[in-house]
Amino acid sequence: MKTSVVYRVMVGLLFLLAGNAAFAQEPVIPVRKRPTINGQPTSPQQTNTVTPQGNARPKSDTAGTGIETRDYSDDSLQVQVYTLSRSAAATFDTSIRDYTSRFPIPATHVFLGNDGSATRSLLFSTPRRIGWDPGFHSNDVYKLRLEDARFYNTPRPYTELGYMLASGTEQIIDILHTQNIRPYWNAAFQYRLLGAPGTFRNQRNNHRSYQITSWYQSQNKRYNNYFVILNNKIQSGENGGIKTDRDYLNDPVFDRRLAIPTNIGGSSTIGTDLFSNNLVTGRREKEFNLLLRQQYDFGRKDSLVTDSTIIPLFYPRLRFEHTLRYGSYSYLYQDVPSASNATKNAPDSAYYNDRYGIKFQNSNGEDSVRLEDRWREWSNDFSVYQFPDANNLQQFIKVGLELQLLHGDL
């Protein structure tokens, strides 16, 4: 009995001593070869590193061991983010603490259960757009908005890739790339693709958006030029809900939900092609925007002097702004006949007459539904800003005049 106790104590002490040198992943500090001058190795004090800002800083190896401490700032990148309505710089939120910030559908919205379908907010909010509005907002959460266009300032090129994959081949792809072409000129490109085939017939959604932005600022910080190209294409299938002549959901014959008949849309197969434009019954929305904004400021100049650099500063008090904007909008709903292998559809005008009181007359003998609104917009705006507090550009007094030209085909 005593031998067993002594044996256990000795084994325990052995594991305790051996555990001091056991690591799941041993931290490695790379040992770099010391540079040489005329064939002779330099001293540790002669070995310098350069920070991302370009300032030389001696390494922390002062003991002459040839081992240096890793500088994590070499892997970091400070990107400044601006918008058309906010002049204060912000930064990227790269954390994953709130997944809803990465997902296009906000947590406060309800939708039909299929990514890319129409959504509605549970919270009251006032319209963000002033003036003319086309009135179609059920797919706004999937679109890139002109009001939210972002402009960047980055010391090095920055690329962000996002890919989300869910059941039923639902996919969301996000691409963002930005870089400074010149020290005072930045360009950025953003692309978003959403594809979701759905569970029932004719639920397929396919949305594509891209945005190109450019921002130029003069060296004295008085002149700013903003340019935006934005395009949204929304394609959303409609089926009018499943038929109610029997209990399809609890019938084992219809365990495959694609076999359940729907009120409109005919019979269709689930496709996985994200770039397909085939739409028989559903909505198509196309929005294209161009924006050019120029600003010139009057105010007080200043500078920040360091040991090796001079950073110019400018505090605007008066700003003149000119904005030229063009927009093209198309909103289409269609339910057209189809006899292809992928989709067989024979629209029934009686369905629209009974539920919506809409009658359609067709000269070719086939029922077909097509409703489309098309708009073109030109906007020319001139504004004057006055900043009471030069240190707070978010507080200002604005006076402006805008000329808006609209042309619509209904």
Uncertain segments: 19-59
Beta-strand fraction estimate: 35-45%
> H/E element string?
HEEEEEEEEEEEEEEEEEEHEE
Helix content: under 10%
Present the secondary structure layout.
Layout lengths: L1 H18 L16 E2 L2 E2 L6 E3 L5 E3 L21 E4 L25 E3 L7 E3 L28 E4 L4 E8 L5 E12 L2 E12 L8 E13 L5 E15 L29 E2 L12 E25 L4 E26 L2 E2 L3 E3 L3 H8 L12 E18 L10 E13 L1
Antiparallel strand pairs: 1-2, 3-4, 5-8, 6-7, 9-10, 10-11, 11-12, 12-13, 13-15, 14-18, 15-16, 16-19, 17-18, 19-20
Question: Please, could you describe this protein's structure?
Answer:
With 410 residues, this protein is mainly β. The protein has a domain of 268 residues. The strands form 6 sheets. The chain has a 9-stranded antiparallel β-sheet with strand order 9-10-11-12-13-15-16-19-20, with no helix packed on it. The protein has a 3-stranded antiparallel β-sheet with strand order 14-18-17, with no helix packed on it. The longest helix has 18 residues. The chain is flat and about 80 Å long. It starts with a helix and ends with a strand. About 10% of the residues have low confidence.
